[in-house]
Amino acid sequence: MKRSQKKYGARLTPPLVAVCTALTIIAMVYGVNAQLPDDVDPIVETYMPVVIEEDFQTTMTREAEEKQKFMDRQKELLERRYDLSDRPANVMMSGERKNIQEGVRVKLPDEVNWDQLAGMSPAEIKEKNLFPEGFLPLPHAKHETGGQVFPENQIEEIEKMEQRSLERFDIEFDIPEHFLPEFPPPIFLTTRPDLGDVSQGKLLSIKNYYEIMHGIVTPVQMEGLRLLLTPFPQQQFNQTEDRKVEEPSLGVSCLDCHSNGHSNGAFHLNPDTRPQVARMRLDTVSLRGMYNQQIHGSKRSLRSIEDFTEFEQRSAYFDGDHVIAAKKGVHLPDRASQVFMMAQMQNLFDFPPAPKLNVFGKLDPDKATDEEMMGQEVFFGKANCAVCHPAPFYTDDKMHNLQVQRFYEPRMSNGKWITAVGPIKSFTLRGIKDSPPYMHDQRLLTLEDTVEFFNIVTRINLTEEEKKALVAFMRCL
């Protein structure tokens, strides 16, 4: 008997069996998932179990005991890929509470240096297996399970303020704190630029949002903020026996990940891809500047912030599985009386000030250094960065496919199938120094890593001086 039948056969209704059979036939005829490892059953890894056969205490005890094994596995992967040392640059993030990290952190194979690698063709790099492992998609810390994972500072602050736990018993955050955004992030509003950072150095929560924002936002926006800070059931944080938090939980709020309308680096798996091994680790994108973006979501290309808000609550919170969402208490926000208020508040979060930029989003020559001006010239010229990231908001609101699979053979890595990713939204670069780690899956820890990645993948052959200038320019955005 196949593994899928052993594990799920007794639970599949005749209609679902027919659907699964049809999907299997389609996969055979059209070659879908043809590259997947032999032991991966795309049907089993598409539908989550509805009936939980193991009691919660047994599950928690087993997975808590296994936690160190997964963390050791992830730590070994990160140390093999990157230089994880704490090397702050003499550049502060916008809240002036934390320095950004500097330097290329991706480790190269011993056989080559960066210039040699940049001179090779994709086919040669692939044939010789020289593509840096740190440039490959980054697996979730526990890819087999996935789900939201929060950094320690967010966990501690919410526990202190709301007595609500965001700490999972089966896994914890993997990237060192010095590579994450400053916490709590500053808050800049489009309606009150004269106030600068309105956060008071605090993390917005359901306990203090009114005190902080009273007299600054409208009643409609305040209600939207309340909803963004209200915890609702989510796949790993809920009341049911398949949760990943010790005590029954109210759930998570939108701003548990998008701290203060920005990001704290929390990650999960994208809900749009199946089977499980092919899903992508997904970084929490900043909500800053949402008012001027036309598509939302790394894969989904949602056309309004209202669509994005509704999708997150109805589907993404539950890994794209509406069946299991029903028993956890899914929140179905009303478009007219709730979603539009949440969207109004999200559309207020502004980019941080960029004092060296003029009204056209370019550097003011009287304020910028020679190196920064050179970096701007490279950005809009030789490096072709502006093709996807044009001024003044440094995004083209399009999906792009870098075709990184040209450089490597598909492989398994810590439970993830490393293969072609496909098109990804081009995210804005405004305020980019505030938003490490980089790429949709956090695979690049610094801006220097990002420049080296694009230098190899887009084959633009930058000099060392041009690379440094490009980093200097992006720090001004």
What's the layout of helices and strands?
Elements: H1 3-8, H2 14-30, H3 56-81, E1 88-92, E2 99-101, H4 114-118, H5 122-127, H6 152-162, H7 209-213, H8 219-228, H9 254-257, E3 267-269, E4 281-283, H10 305-314, H11 322-328, H12 335-346, H13 370-380, E5 399-400, E6 411-413, E7 416-418, E8 424-425, H14 447-457, H15 464-474
Antiparallel strand pairs: 1-2, 3-4, 5-8, 6-7
Structural description of this entry:
The longest helix has 26 residues, at 56-81. Strands 1-2 form a two-stranded antiparallel sheet. The protein has a two-stranded antiparallel ribbon with strand order 3-4. It contains 15 helices and 8 strands. Strand 6 (411-413) and strand 7 form a beta hairpin. With 477 residues, the chain is mainly α. It folds into 3 domains: 1-47, no CATH class; 78-137 and 354-474, Cytochrome Bc1 Complex, Chain D, domain 2, CATH 1.10.760; 152-346, no CATH class.
User: Major beta sheet, specifics?
Assistant: 2 strands, antiparallel
Which oligomerization state do the chains in this entry correspond to? single chain
Give average pLDDT, whole number.
91
Assign the structural class, choosing from mainly alpha, mainly beta, alpha/beta, alpha+beta, or little secondary structure: mainly alpha
Question: What percent of residues adopt helix (DSSP H or I)?
Answer: 25-40%
Low-confidence stretches: 1-33
How many H/I helical runs? 15
Across the major sheet, the strand order is 1-2
What overall geometry do the principal axes of the alpha carbons give? globular
Radius of gyration: 23 Å
